[in-house]
Amino acid sequence: MSTDQNTDQNTQPAPRYALSARAAALRSSDVRELLKAAQQAQVISLAGGLPAAELFDTEGLRAATLAALDTNPAAALQYGLTEGQTALREALQAREREQGIALAGRALLVTTGSQQALDIVARLLLDEGDVVVVQRPSYLAALQTFNLAGAQCLGLDEDEEGARVEDLETMAFPRKPKLVYLVTPFANPSGATLSLRRRRWLLEWAARNEVLVLEDDPYGVLRTEGQELPSLAALAQDVPGARAWVGRTSTLSKAVAPGLRLGWLVLPTALAEAAARVKQSMDLHTSSFAQEVAAHYLAGGRLPAHLARVRGAYRERRRALCQALREAFGGALEFSEPEGGMFLWAHFTDGTDTRALLPAALAAGMAFVPGDAFYAGAAPRDRLRLSFSTETPERLREGVARLRKAWEASRRG
Amino acid sequence: MSTDQNTDQNTQPAPRYALSARAAALRSSDVRELLKAAQQAQVISLAGGLPAAELFDTEGLRAATLAALDTNPAAALQYGLTEGQTALREALQAREREQGIALAGRALLVTTGSQQALDIVARLLLDEGDVVVVQRPSYLAALQTFNLAGAQCLGLDEDEEGARVEDLETMAFPRKPKLVYLVTPFANPSGATLSLRRRRWLLEWAARNEVLVLEDDPYGVLRTEGQELPSLAALAQDVPGARAWVGRTSTLSKAVAPGLRLGWLVLPTALAEAAARVKQSMDLHTSSFAQEVAAHYLAGGRLPAHLARVRGAYRERRRALCQALREAFGGALEFSEPEGGMFLWAHFTDGTDTRALLPAALAAGMAFVPGDAFYAGAAPRDRLRLSFSTETPERLREGVARLRKAWEASRRG
């Protein structure tokens, strides 16, 4: 017997923890590891999914905080209602109504970011083995959340009209889907926007089949050109029976600041009440401090000018990126320029393997996300996602030059 | 066929939503409904579980917010790490070390209140049908969380030494427990503190049986007299093999302000890494805005004086409540005065049914929580929980006078 067995915990055999089956199946993204190198300052990162920090309205948020603490400190600092602070709920409801969404028969719940809205809906609806339909390529954190609730995710391919929802009629489902989850405008990563025709079709399908459609709309506020499409929640008013089968989530992360961690979830009232019970078990309520600051910020009237500034900067950046890519790669790289959002989704027509390209790109001083990272199963290898939100036009052009250098080296190698 | 079938969605049959089995089993507390009347200003509420709002250090938090937004606005407003903001994690780690807790081999995760810490641990460990051991009476939101993760909760009775952990040896478990969850000092609702002897015994049991013990310590900072006991996490250093089987959660809700929604979770590193993946699916991360404000607040050095003020007020209130109860009820109401926390747990020796008493108490202008609300199954009917944190000594005395009036009426009736 070893003599040191009790001298140090480190010499004992490592304990074996029995994780839940669902937690054990959660994997850390290998791309996350690869991209740690992208956090160095000299790397021009087109890999992130962040809004531009230098555009945050710090001055407005500072004033809003002072207003919140001066007006009613207890509201900001005490426990609050699970559904959310009244002032913020009313402000968000007003925003929804401005977008043509009638709220009769629906209720709005403030969430800890829209990620929590996904988790709430997942836990509200999904039992082990249930089917969720998503678009493919997918927002991976949503897949993780649905998987953590025990669900299996099936993907709808995308084209220039967004997710091919008509495929819902012909897909072979192991069981009837419980949920269809779509990022409707400017999807992450593809940038695709669901067309009006498909929105109507989907609503009719949802009403006919009694399946909840959850519309995730984080990027709609970042539209810089083109016609704004009515949301599924707004359109549902014209499709008999559809209103009862549409949920909607959005966030202040892109319009104001992600650090507040404020999103919201609109559901038919019967579902919203059950959703509040689920949320209560998750975190009692979302930070009332952040909520009161946001309510004062929205009441302060600075948001429209702030959004105009953000949209202007993103448009300039997106155009710079697109132009540089066209000049650097010509026909070797295809993409369609989206009318907003934060992402460009491109593919190499010469079959370049973007995952293999990434180390060379990082070595050349730029970062992107290989497209296969956004697929749960079989994935094309020739895609990449480029974010244009956080870098200046000049740095975006330099980033593209570095990408071209890496690409050329890979073609020679 | 009705002619109005398409004129109004309200005339259509209400849709039937298929909730997940776990969400469908979540019930709204009937006590919550009863106590809505307690929110009226003329009602003296001893029913709440809130800290005293008038004692919040608004001035300190205002200064901390300005410091956070002036020093590094991007840190407060941008997306952050799932594990938490570095400055806050370091400050919380320093607090843990001050309490004798060695952090080698452990990691600290910032959570959206300690409620989320419970949810993270539940989802990390629990599969359908798993067993969690709790104390009885119980913190109900913890039971809800464990149930939402599919677990069944079994209760340890309490006595003056806290939960009777020795019963773990003789309880008939349907399967080996995955988790023991205990509020160690000043439990809610009982106010009981787990004795040093039982802490040691529990750690030996956990190491021998390889079962995680989660220590929830929201109220330890509210100790006003008596000897502070070492936490399970601190004691575990002296019990061979125990460190690997102790988790710990606490919160800034009682020390600073609940509205920040900031808690933390300390786990052995291997579990903490898996916990971060779970948390990422839940809300990406906790509000970086609230975290940076809290980090600046803790760095500002005002907390000790603030806590002294809070403890002084709570002690005065608790004493006033206890004295008034002794004078009003004599031997008809038994309780032991805790050395801290926010709650008094009492029982009527004359067999008064406290749930039946509540309407009369509300009618007389005071509120409490009937004790049976804190039991999942069979419950004694003669207990009640009285909170002393939010009312002044004068209002507490008046509240007791109203309770006595209701009690006398109930004895006549």
TrEMBL record, chains A, B:
GO molecular function, one term: transaminase activity
CDD domains: AAT_like (cd00609)
Record SUPFAM superfamilies: PLP-dependent transferases
Highest taxon above the source species: Bacteria
Pfam family, one: Aminotran_1_2
Keywords: Aminotransferase, Pyridoxal phosphate, Transferase
InterPro entries: Aminotransferase_I/II_large (IPR004839), Class-I_PLP-dep_aminotransf (IPR050859), PyrdxlP-dep_Trfase (IPR015424), PyrdxlP-dep_Trfase_major (IPR015421), PyrdxlP-dep_Trfase_small (IPR015422)
Chain ranges of the Aminotransferase class I/classII large domain: 65-403
Swiss-Prot/TrEMBL cofactor(s): pyridoxal 5'-phosphate
Keyword rRNA processing: no
PANTHER family: AMINOTRANSFERASE, KYNURENINE_ALPHA-AMINOADIPATE AMINOTRANSFERASE, MITOCHONDRIAL
Stated name of the protein: PLP-dependent aminotransferase family protein
